[in-house]
């Protein structure tokens, strides 16, 4: 299963607005994506509740994983999104 590891750049981490932007982008991907912190359980990246329960703050290292058609493109898009400071941007 393809994976990408990325550091969360948003100043508030994956909370509130950055989490919403990430979850909405994940839901639009052609392949289902899951996200986890460290050795923790992976949660669906398209689930707001799941993403918020990770407690991924600024600088947290998360792993994205996906399988199926479009998995590599989905991982690239979401990793690029997490690597940006979504708090500083007007919109994604």
Outline type: globular
* Tally of helical segments: 3
Give the ordered list of helices and strands: EHEEHEH
Give the number of domains: 1
What fraction, in percent, of the residue positions are helical?
25-40%
Low-confidence stretches: none
Radius of gyration: 12 Å
Mean pLDDT: 94
* CATH domain class name: Alpha Beta
Strand arrangement, largest sheet?
Answer: 1-4-2-3
CATH H-tier superfamily: HPr-like
Q: What structural class should be given to the helix and strand makeup? A: alpha+beta
What fold name stands as the CATH topology? Histidine-containing Protein, Chain: A
How far the N terminus sits from the C terminus, by CA atoms, comes to: 27 Å
Seen as an oligomer or otherwise, the chain set is single chain
Strand content: 15-25%
- Compute the number of strand runs: 4
CATH arch. level architecture = 2-Layer Sandwich
Largest sheet: 4 strands, antiparallel
